[in-house]
Amino acid sequence: MAGWARFGPVGCRAVTDGEPRADFSLVGILRIPQVQTSPWSSLLRRVLLAVALLVVSALVVYWGRAGYHDIAGDDLSFLDCFYYAAVSLSTTGYGDISPVSPTARLVNILIITPLRVIFLILLVGTTLSVLTERSRQAFKIQRWRRTVRNHTVVVGYGTKGRAAVDAVLGDGAERSGIVVVDSDAGALRAANNAGLVTVHGSATKSDVLRLAGVEHAASVVVATNRDDTAVLVTLTARELNATASIVVAIREVENTHLLRQSGANSVVVSSETAGRLLGIATTTPTVVEMMEDLLTPEAGFAIAERAVGDNEIGSSPRDLGDIALGVVRDGVLTRVGDPAVGSLRAADRVLYIRYTGR
Fold first, then answer.
1. In the chain, where are the structural domains located?
2. What's the pLDDT tens digit per position in 207-252?
3. Does the structure show a pLDDT above 60 at 318?
4. At CB < 8 A and 24+ separation, what contacts does 338-343 make?
């Protein structure tokens, strides 16, 4: 999608097609989730507020009724005052009741007229509600862009993208710390309904990834439907952020080296992985069941990573209370059975099996 917004030099404006755009213009492209309220409750609140304004106006007129003239010459009752308030706030103004004393006219200027304006705002509340919503969204966008740091950007909210989001949430991440980038409006609606920040556009464009805050992201998950798209997204994300952990899902194993050269830290071959699980399931289906359990962090067992404890430094990973699978040293994973592991060091991280309960 051409011409999506990108950060300007000071991060407070966006640029599209060479023209600067304010954060307000990003509403509909970048969307911050909010708590949805029932339209009926919103309508009820507006009706109650309109009635309250009418009652307040009627009480004000009744309090100063001596300064009003009725064309019929009768003293004003509370019903007459309520009638005057209704026709005055609605700007109907029949003229049969009118303020004649200086005090009554001053009250109309200082009280009745402002109430009339508020009442008119309520009458066109639907349009103003949309404008107010856009203003709130623009404010949220501005605030979010200033504060977003160390978040996760998920490119593609299909089956793989949704599963990745569930796994990240299962590891304890906050929904506000996940940004979904997709060009499909239906997928973005689903992501927004799930409480995730969404960006509408093609992630192959640096402008869109900047809008998602990739420069400040801790990790990027690329779950596109095409391998060539995944390569372009990975190249663009790595150019914008040299330190983020980029994880990519592809269909064909021969494209793995392309993703590695493009800057991906981890490459998952979806078709090959699924094929292996299918083959294993023909003879040992319980192995597949356990694999799925390990990949589901919210229940049962899960593969996790942690720092080495002070009392574990110098010991063998096989002597730990946890079931250790490997040791991450200087960013490189070494299996427990490898003699190169030796004893644990202070800067090491242990890959182990964690029991999360059911």
1. 39-125, 148-272, 299-357
2. 999 989 999 999 999 999 999 999 999 999 999 999 999 999 998 8
3. yes
4. 341/316, 341/317, 342/316, 343/313, 343/314, 343/315, 343/316
Non-local CB neighbours of 147 within 8 Å, separated by 6+ positions: none
Lookup: tokens for 202: 């093609």
How many CA within 13 A on the CB side of residue 114? 7
How far apart are the C-alpha atoms of 179 and 22, rounded to whole Å?
21
Task: Identify the residue whose tokens are 């862009």.
Answer: 145
Greater confidence (1 vs 123) lies with 123
Closest CA to 72 of 59, 57, 63, 84: 84
What are the pLDDT digits (tens) for 28-45? 677 766 544 554 566 667
CA gap 233, 222 in Å, rounded: 7
Distance CA 314, CA 344 (A): 5
Say how far apart CA 220 and CA 234 lie, in whole Å: 9
Residue bearing tokens 């644990």: 344
Interatomic CA distance for residues 237 and 247, integer angstroms: 11
The Cβ of residue 263 has, within 10 Å, a number of other Cβ atoms equal to 19
User: What are the tens digits of pLDDT across the range 57-70?
Assistant: 889 888 888 888 88
Q: Which pTM does this prediction carry?
A: 0.58
Helix (H) or strand (E) holding 223: none
Q: DSSP states of 154-218 as a string?
A: EE--SHHHHHHHHHHHHTT--GGGEEEEES-HHHHHHHHHTT-EEEES-TTSHHHHHHTTGGG-S
Question: Nearest-CA neighbor of 53 among 128, 119, 152, 141?
Answer: 119
CATH fold, domain 39-125, is Helix Hairpins (1.10.287)
What pLDDT does 130 receive?
56
Fold classification of 299-357 (topology level):
Alpha-Beta Plaits (3.30.70)
Residue in the block written with tokens 């209370």: 321
C-beta of residue 301 within 8 angstroms of C-beta of residue 293: yes
- pLDDT, position 16: 43
